[in-house]
Amino acid sequence: MADDTVGTDVCGADAGGTPAEATAGIPATFRGEPEFSDSLRTFGAVLQALREHAGLSRQEFAELVRFSKHTVASVELGRRMPDPTLVERSEDATGNTGALRKSVRHLARQPGLAAWFRQWARLEATAITLYTYECRMIPGLLQTEAYARALSADQLPPLDDAQIAERWAARTERQRLLRERPNTTFGFILEEQLFVRRTGGAEVTRELIDHVLEIGQLRNVEIQIMPLVQESHAGLHGPVQLLETPENKWFAYTEAPESGQLISDSKVVSVLQRRYARMRSQALTIQDSVSLLQRMRGDL
Fold first, then answer.
1. Would you say residue 176 has pLDDT above 80?
2. pTM of the predicted structure, to 2 decimals
3. pLDDT recorded at residue 173
4. What is the distance between the alpha carbons of residues 15 and 7, in angstroms, rounded to a whole number?
């Protein structure tokens, strides 16, 4: 299953070496660690204590580290994995005690996220631009619970109820980005076949289309459909995701069965950006995509 749906293995090596700022202090694998909630709450409590010891309000601290007050609150309350850049800036803002750099190394894995996807998820959490092309299944950021459960039903080896619930919880946490980061640009190019397949049945697909149409109305979200009949298609190499960090650096992410690859090599990322740009011109316009989805829903 795509991106956040499997929880084993490690992140694939990228073509140009993973950038230090993306991985500083964050272990590549998380095995035999404490529960995610406990370790994140502990880190958040340390961060909050250091902030308060420095005499900073949450708003003042957020301005210093150049992250939103909401992001700082989410980290302090143990609801969000801290971004590596936030950790470094927090150290600077609280006297460089080293406590945050040391404690972040012991954070547990994120339940529900594939090991190879976690590094991308950390970058995704603070991205200012995020583009996704998908031809296999609806991306996690756009899924409904019923659709996600339908995908889980075909997972091998089979999942138990707790694992399915854990993965949906991770996905809903990621989906908050769409509404909580209104200044982030989200773009999705989805193959028409993803809806034609009717994964989970007609009712699940109707709900999915309604959800995608609703998300598409957000000012910061663009959704385009790649039609079934398309004689020229720049995306035949497979799914790809692209993001831009607050520092205006671009990364890409691709997946294969049971593995993922975070790409930082600027030459490779540039090629993937050009392919995505070509696909945007080949896919239906946003308005025509909405019309197609509405027709498809009416036919169910």
1. yes
2. 0.66
3. 85
4. 23
